[in-house]
Write a structure and sequence with these properties.
By secondary structure, the chain is of the alpha+beta class. The chain is built from two helices and nine strands; from the N terminus they run αβββββββββα. The strands form two sheets. Strands 1, 2, 3, 4, 5 and 6 form a six-stranded antiparallel sheet that branches. The chain has a three-stranded antiparallel sheet with strand order 7-8-9. The chain is globular and about 55 Å long.
Length: 199
Amino acid sequence: STQAKTLFPYTTLFRSQQILVSQTELSRNALRAIDLLRADIRMAGYRDFSNPNPLAGNQAIKIGGVGDIAFVYDDYTDAGVLYRAFIRYYLANYTSSSGSSRMRLMREWRKCNNPASSCDRASSTAYIGGDAGEPILDWVSTFEVTGLNPKVYGTFLGQYQTVQVNLVITSPQKIDGSSKVVSKKYTVLTRAKNVSLVP
């Protein structure tokens, strides 16, 4: 009908606007999480000059699976107290009160209990976000971690000098009048500068 033909351009424009808004929101949320992840990758293996405890080279970056990665480095609290941090990213299932289920990217932020010996999840205490950490990105369908360019000499022998992350997130809202769901893929490639620069 003539009315249907008249409405078609407006419907198309409205859907295009919905897609654009969804993509913008996805990008905003993803970039915040990516900035945090890249900062942790760059810090991996950092040992503060004033920390008397050694930092074993094999602790800097640990990939526990396709979507599980942890970093160890020295950091300072807001009060200026030096401590050794254990940071872990992983995917976790989440079911909302409405019953919808999805995956979240979690970040554990922990303090090492005895940095003089070693630091891993079992030998650390939750610092921020509770024992499971805190969600930093919602509606994540893919979080794949790959270590690249392992060090062939020196302090960080065998440790990855670069980390690649493939991330796919999906908008929780479908586009009106269709079954289309907006998703975006990101590939993050970041150098672990302490691993690559320390002899």
